[in-house]
Amino acid sequence: MEEMTLCSPEHQEVFRRVWARVMGDQEGCPAANPPEGMEGDLSCRKLAELAQAAQDAAQNSAPAPQPEPSNPCTARLRRQILEALEGWQFYRYLARRARGGAGRILSAMAADQHQQARRLAAAYFLLTGVRYWPTGTLAVPTISSMWGALRRRYQAEEAAGQAFVSAAQDAGDPALPQLYQQLAQNCQEHCRQLRTLLEQSGP
């Protein structure tokens, strides 16, 4: 039979402080109220077992973290960031296939889209504290013809501009309406540039 090493009063006092820190103001500290038949000093092993049991009980009783409720404003921002990055990638690929001045215009439009995504990501971070930048999910755009690609981007810019105007009216945050209005104007400018490219490229 193993010997029971008794802890000194100093060790028991340390245990009482640990118990109080883990269990709060709950009564029933074994060192203060030893079980029947164990009056006096408690063994170090017994104190360690009781301390571990107290920590396990405290962890098991801690409430589980609740998932953050969905927020329509931040969900919309995430979608807008991804759409802006998809436009950025699309313009980059178009610029590589274009010639002369059209390539420079498309490269500038790609830079605009990247800046747009950065502004939306900054707004998202200010609201959530989370940096959202999903470049790893971008797919390689399918471009069958330059004319068809320019038409697709014209439609996407037109739809994005209308969405920004609607979002400005129901932003959910006082700092967002001005940003959305500016982005809507950028989309209108992109539509104008795309129309000009189509007019200059000829049949």
Describe it for me?
- With 203 residues, the protein is mainly α.
- The protein is 68% helix and 0% strand.
- The protein has helices at 9-23, 44-61, 72-97, 100-128, 146-169, 176-201.
- The protein starts with 8 loop residues before the first helix and ends with a helix.
* Uncertain runs: 1-6, 62-69
How far apart the termini lie comes to: 99 Å
Q: Please work out how many helical segments DSSP would assign.
A: 6
What does the radius of gyration come to?
32 Å
How do the helices and strands follow one another from N- to C-terminus?
A: HHHHHH
Strand content: under 5%
Structural class: mainly alpha
Biggest beta-sheet profile = none
Number of strands: 0
Label the overall shape: elongated
Mean pLDDT: 81
Share of helical residues = 55-70%
Structural key phrases:
mainly alpha, 6 helices, disordered N terminus
Task: Summarize, please.
With 203 residues, the protein is mainly α. Helices cover 68% and strands 0% of the residues.
Strand and helix map with partners:
Blueprint: H1 9-23, H2 44-61, H3 72-97, H4 100-128, H5 146-169, H6 176-201
Helix pairs in contact: 1-2, 3-4, 3-5, 4-6, 5-6
